[in-house]
Amino acid sequence: MQHSPARTHLERRIARTPLELAEQLASIYGYDFSTPVYVPGMSVIGRLRLGYINEVEELLAPYHNGRSFEVSNSSALAGQLVFAEHAALTGNQQSLLLTLQAADLAFDESGEPLEVAPMHYEMSDSFFMATPLLAKAGAITEDEKYFDMAIRHVTYMRNMLLRENRLYRHSPEADVAWSRGNGFPALGLALTVSDFPPTHPARDVILGMLIDHLEALLPYQDEDGMWHEVIDYPGSFAELTSTAMIGIAIKRGLDKGWLREESFRPALDKAWSAVKIRTSFDGVFINACTSTGKMPSLDSYLDRLAIFDRDDRAGGMVMNFAIEMAGL
Fold first, then answer.
1. Residue 28: enclosing H or E segment and its boundaries?
2. 150 close to 206: Cβ distance less than 8 angstroms
3. pLDDT recorded at residue 257
4. With bands split at pLDDT 50, 70 and 90, how would you rate the model's confidence at 1?
5. Cβ proximity of 107 and 168 under 8 Å
6. Domains in the chain: boundaries
7. What is the pLDDT of residues 119-137, one digit of tens each?
8. How far apart are the C-alpha atoms of 14 and 41, rounded to whole Å?
């Protein structure tokens, strides 16, 4: 049977292996870290994981050599994960210093932990923006204060933002389960618990938070394998970045034996196929939600732009999903 050009093209997208897709995206994304924030940072981390260490070190060299920047917002705080991943991979002392300077913002001048990590803005993004950095700092230094601060932070944020249906509202301003507002907790908790020592008393608490959240997300995955721009509002558009973020968390959970195969393997397979279909060979994505701060109502979240183009945020998240699927 002869297929249409469109069908043939979709089949070629689906046939890509995880490593092929990761390398395709790594040829486009992860070449600019002139502003050390999380959006370009995720692609830089992806290139690190793929082995492009020398190329990434060229991007980090200005900061190693003293270029100053201010960690004054949550995006910049999460951007320091690049240095944390580099330090963990290579032992580079300049990257370690930058990692600890950022992680130590969660402590006062006497070294005592703050009530909650700074720059959280009452937003569920903070599960990712602050917590994996703290856990990575703890894993590198073996200093338990960072793990203790991580559990303090996620407990504070969870108490503020968890809804009765076990999804997260994006902020207290509107009781809306925004897409990345749930992708951030899923990804953030998965990365965090991966770096926790098995013997730390809070490790199983964070793992329980992650499993509970992923189980709550399962019923909201659509038939195509996607989660939507408002998770529990079926009429909102199927959103790419949150699907990739949740997919990373599920794959990590299955690989580590945290999740039930019979429930989560089919969900992962559907999500991976859906993301491949919506990712072109030249790095164009279908329906990645635009940058979104606090919104005052459901309608304001539903009105967010769906990007159909190249997009740095989607590039980093999908690249890391592909790398996770490749087992790297």
1. none
2. yes
3. 98
4. low
5. no
6. 5-325
7. 999 999 999 999 999 999 9
8. 27
Query: DSSP class of residue 37?
Result: S
Residue 74: CB partners within 8 Å, gap ≥ 6? Answer: 119, 120, 121, 123, 125, 126, 129, 130
For 145-159, what is the mean pLDDT?
98
Q: Does residue 94 carry a pLDDT above 70?
A: yes
- What radius of gyration, in Å, describes the C-alpha atoms of the chain? 19
Place of tokens 């539903």: 302
Q: Look up residue 175 and give its two tokens.
A: 């009781």
- Specify whether the CB–CB gap between 94 and 63 falls below 8 A: yes
Torsions phi, psi for 17 (to 5 deg)? -75, 160
Provide DSSP, 243-275.
HHHHHHHHHHHHHHT-S-HHHHHHHHHHHHHHH
Number of H helices, E strands in the chain: 16, 4
**From 3.40.1190.10, 3.30.360.10, 1.50.10.10, 3.30.390.30, which CATH number describes the 5-325 domain?**
1.50.10.10
Angle at 124 between CA 121 and CA 126, to 5 degrees: 65
pLDDT exceeds cutoff 80 at 3 = no
**Single pTM value for the model:** 0.97
Burial (CB count <10 Å: 0-12, 13-18, 19+), residue 319: buried
* Helix, strand or coil, per DSSP, at residue 113: strand
The residue length of the chain stands at 328
Q: What is the DSSP letter of 279?
A: B
| Cβ atoms of 68 and 106 closer than 8 Å | no
